[in-house]
Design brief:
Number of strands of chain B: 2
Mean pLDDT of chain A: 84
Oligomer: heterodimer
Low-confidence stretches of chain A: 1-51
Strand content of chain B: under 5%
Low-confidence stretches of chain B: none
Helix content of chain B: over 70%
Helix content of chain A: 25-40%
Radius of gyration of chain A: 22 Å
Number of helices of chain B: 15
Largest sheet of chain A: 9 strands, mixed
Largest sheet of chain B: 2 strands, antiparallel
Distance between the termini of chain B: 29 Å
Chain lengths: 444, 284
């Protein structure tokens, strides 16, 4: 019943090739290129994708930037192979992504940004909304990004849930729509539920709650991340778990709530609870791998990276639930003509399964789950999405063994994990105040 | 005649003036203007408000950050001066041949073949909880538990600064010491001066300009640095530049600009005091 909302079994009969071919008529929007498109159908039967502008598309280069999680060379290579044009990727940290998006809009064509960043970036007018009718895979997008609900009866989590900044009112508008419209700010691509990472060999007891990071037993051996918008959310999860504060909305705190949260953090810092704060992905890996910290806020692939060094590390599910984030692709406002068409083509391709499967194998989730299923083996799908024990070895996207047969994913199935999201990364109304208080915490 | 001479010097100074005007004065001007602007999450709002300064100057965050920064600057200065002066003295007065002096001096610059950041980061595996120093101490039976304050602490920050910036002291001090006439020292010896008197009355005063130039280097470098504090302090320590860096990365340019202006004024004031103590132009 739950599963049905996401994955419609009737679609699974289609092989990827027939599905693409069946959908090709929607290319008629490029009536000029109709002849070419027909030729493309034939090509599509072989490669899985119609190459409709075989002539001039080779000259197109789309410049995409975003965080390291999804700006992967494998995606650029596959894009070149399937679609024929070049994708140039730049990966930056979250704060630099925001900065680049707002201050250098001419320097990119496609922005791979997170939804909470979108709330800052989109109103700046540097991006153009996407016409959803141009995307043949639009209907495959998880309802989580359309209505905010994973299943029809699930509750919407706190914070900047992606659907609240997912649509704008009209083509030229920078105002977020409250309902689904034809104009989407970002096409969702990737998302995940974050929790604390632990070193099971060093913590010495089961970790069950966010509050465990404040356990005096781990004095000087914990860390949280120093990206204020995300760090404050982790802090909120911790403070609420400690029973110190009950937030009306963790993703949009009042000044008093911010004050109290920061006070708790400062007190903990002064007692020497934290060993360090990390800002970049690599820092979090090093802290954990070197044993400087035993429990810290972390990102899923960082946990994988620590594990791949042969050091035990667990992405520990906690009883209060997860802090989630989602990312998507948006178009720079200067994009037009052939580049714009190529960008639409690219985004549609992104949703068509190969990338989704790649991201799923990294431990993230694809925004179009049913298409990615076509590119995964039943065992992979069972391990990553359904939370089943792996029948064979589970390989990472590079083909290395990541989990042995019999392993079960931490946190269980997709629905267990995404269904237990307590809040989304967000930008608060009191953002300016929050950042000032956060600085106070860092300096204290 | 005098007039045309003046004209020449104007022309000659024009290129540098233009460069300074375009790349120094203009950006600082822009910064000054922006520091009075308002801002929200995604844009700068041209305005004329004192809010940024008001917050900056009344917040005890700023005070703490400045105290922290001055502490780093002073301690770094103290150690780099101590080490730098000794090193320069050894090079200038104890190494006899000029060839040897050159060789040793070049040897001092070898660390500069690798970047700042790499030299800094290489301390981390050494100082960590399970790092080389701790393992050595534990194996040697000096300690039972690993020592925590070696890394992600003020100690680590100062250590990195001293490591990175001592050369900036050595070079100018060595330079000024080389110009001290050895006959002066000999004369003082002949006149029966004790070694400490030679140091106090001859070497120190005559290398004052070098010390001053080195101090200015070290001071301004430490005051404006955020990366050392970030890496060696593990993000848990902060100075003024870290605050500015945080604000920039969160698109709060006006607040960052105000912070930068205040920092600039602070550093300029300190330099003015230093220049009061020594007239560098005369000494050079």
């Amino acid at each position: 019943m739950k599963d049905k909302a996401i994955i419609d079994p009737t679609h699974q009969a289609d092989s990827p090739a027939t599905e693409t071919a069946a959908k090709t008529p929607s290319f008629s929007r490029r009536s000029l290129l109709k002849g070419a498109a027909k030729a493309g159908v034939a090509a599509g039967a072989i490669s899985g994708f119609p190459m409709i502008w075989a002539q001039n598309i080779k000259n197109v280069t789309l410049r995409q930037f975003g965080t390291g999680v999804s700006n992967l060379n494998a995606i650029a290579d596959k894009c070149k192979e399937d679609l024929g044009f070049n994708l140039q990727l730049t990966s930056l940290d979250s704060d630099s992504v925001t900065q680049r998006a707002v201050t250098q809009p001419k320097s990119y064509d496609i922005a791979d940004i997170e939804y909470w960043i979108c709330k800052k970036v989109f109103p700046a007018g540097v991006m153009q909304p996407l016409d959803t009718s141009k995307l043949k895979n639009f209907s495959k997008i998880s309802p989580l990004f359309i209505t905010g609900k994973l299943t029809p009866d699930s509750e919407i989590a706190q914070g900047t849930a992606p659907h609240t900044v997912g649509f704008v009112e009209s083509k030229g508008s920078t105002k977020f729509a409250t309902e689904q419209t034809n104009w989407m700010t970002l096409i969702p691509t990737i998302y995940n539920a974050d929790t604390l990472g632990i070193r099971p060999d060093l913590v010495g007891r089961p970790i069950t709650t966010w509050a465990d990071i404040m356990d005096p037993a781990y004095k000087g051996k914990t860390s949280i991340l120093n990206i204020p918008s995300i760090g404050i959310m982790d802090a909120a999860m911790i403070c609420e778990a400690m029973g110190e504060i009950k937030y009306a909305d963790k993703g949009n705190m009042s000044k008093a709530e911010i004050d109290k949260t920061i006070d708790i953090l400062i007190a903990a810092k002064n007692q020497g609870q934290f060993r360090a704060f990390w800002k970049s992905f690599d820092e979090s890996i090093n802290l954990m791998a070197s044993g400087e910290v035993v429990i810290q806020s972390m990102w899923s692939p960082a946990v994988t990276a620590v594990r791949s060094r042969g050091i035990p590390c667990v992405y520990q599910p906690l009883k209060e639930g997860y802090r989630a984030w989602g990312g998507g692709l948006g178009l720079a406002s200067h994009l037009s003509g052939l580049e714009l068409e190529a960008a639409y083509e690219y985004i549609d391709w992104y949703l068509s399964g190969w990338v989704g499967a790649y991201l799923n194998r990294q431990g993230y989730y694809s925004a179009a789950p049913e298409t990615s299923k076509n590119y995964m083996t039943p065992d992979e799908w069972g391990f990553w999405i359904e939370g089943k024990a792996a029948k064979g070895d589970i390989l990472n996207p590079d083909g290395k063994v990541m989990e042995k047969a019999g392993a079960v994913r931490d946190g269980g199935s997709y629905w267990d994990r995404m269904g237990a999201v307590a809040c989304w990364n967000s930008v608060m109304d009191e953002n300016k105040y929050m950042v000032r208080k956060w600085n106070e915490f860092i300096v204290s | 005649m005098a007039l045309s001479k003046n004209h020449h010097s104007y022309w000659q100074s024009l290129p540098l003036s233009l460069v300074l005007l375009g790349f120094l004065v203009f950006p600082i001007g822009v910064m000054l203007v922006v520091s009075f602007w308002d801002y929200n999450e995604y844009s700068l709002l041209p305005d004329f408000i004192f809010d940024n300064y008001e917050f900056l100057l009344t917040s005890n965050v700023t005070l703490k950050a400045y105290l922290q920064t001055l502490k780093y600057a002073f301690l770094t200065w103290l150690f780099t001066f101590g080490i730098g002066f000794t090193l320069a003295y050894f090079l200038a007065f104890h190494v006899r041949t000029q060839k040897m002096q050159t060789v040793l001096f070049l040897l001092c610059t070898v660390p500069f073949f690798t970047s700042n950041i790499i030299r800094m980061i290489s301390w981390i595996p050494l100082l960590g909880r399970n790092g080389l120093v701790n393992s050595a101490l534990q194996t040697g039976g000096f300690i039972d538990q690993p020592v925590d304050w070696l890394l992600y602490s003020d100690f680590a920050i100062i250590l990195a600064y001293v490591h990175l910036y001592t050369m900036f002291m050595v070079v100018p001090i060595f330079n000024s010491m080389m110009r001290i006439d050895p006959n002066l020292v000999e004369a003082a010896l002949d006149a029966g001066a004790a070694p400490w008197q030679i140091m106090k009355d001859i070497i120190l005063p005559l290398s004052k300009s070098g010390i001053m130039v080195g101090s200015i280097f070290v001071f301004t470098l430490v005051m404006g640095d955020f990366i050392t504090v970030k890496i060696m302090g593990g993000g848990i320590k902060a100075n003024v530049a870290t605050l500015i860096y945080n604000e920039i990365s969160l698109l709060q340019y006006p607040a960052a600009a105000a912070g930068a202006i205040v920092l600039l004024i602070t550093v300029l004031m300190m330099l003015m005091i230093l220049f009061r103590l020594v007239d560098v132009r005369k000494e050079l």
